[in-house]
Automatic annotation (TrEMBL):
Species per Swiss-Prot/TrEMBL record: Streptomyces chartreusis
Descriptive protein name: DUF3562 domain-containing protein
Amino acid sequence: MAETTREEDAIRLVVERLKSAFGATHSPAEVEEAVAKAHATFAGRPVREFVPVLVERRARIILHESAG
């Protein structure tokens, strides 16, 4: 359970970082949607330690692609 809370806290930090990084081109809702979409791709994976880092990378790709 503590691991889940740590991951959720880390994902919230990812959302905040990406809102700052993409605030000029994307709404907060778009950032949250990109993070949720990226996070969903790791659902059910047994190793959770690096999920927040991977989610941030994937969400950045999603946001860059949708900015064009």
